[in-house]
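Let us work through a complete example step by step.
Step 1: write down the sequence.
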Amino acid sequence: MVFLKFIFRIIFKIFVPVTVLNRELMPESGACIVAPNHETMMDMFMIGYKIKRKICWMAKQELFKFKPFGWLIKKCGAYPVKRDNHDVGGANHTINLLKDGNAVGIFPQGTRSKGRGLALTPKPGFIRLAADADAKIVPIAIWGKIRLFGKVYVKFGKPIDPADLLGGASPSDKEAVSEAAKRYLEYVYSMMEVTDADHKG
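Step 2: predict the structure and record it as tokens.
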């Protein structure tokens, strides 16, 4: 893992320059869900390479079929889940990880946005998981020219209590959870700017 972080530091310094902002907002311990917008296959690496804490990334099981890539993302903390909404085993595993105090990474958009941004409706499961496990949600925004020698920004936001997103509604209220997920994603996209208050890390 240390060696992989070293490799990614080289990649994200020379070939795909990444500026990480406010990484000190990432909780050092305790259950949390890291929930960024999803732009490319490199997102999980760009988020994880500069923080000390390991993130257990929820990833669609198809990504593990190509064994070299499957090995790489497993080393970076990923575990497979089915893409449908009925993967009880995947959900239970995620809850157990959170209840054990781990950081879990979930892409609310479910797939790479490919320029669709807010037009891609977020999957609300991450709100329910956070509420069930009493875990905070860490907003992260990724934007820029994510290509060779492009300029990319990764910005951490203050952890959010899922109860605040729900505004007093029950996590079992499907409509309320869906609206909370939309508001959350809108907030992530509103973070996509570098301000005087941001700290580079």
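Step 3: interpret the result. The chain has a mean pLDDT of 92.
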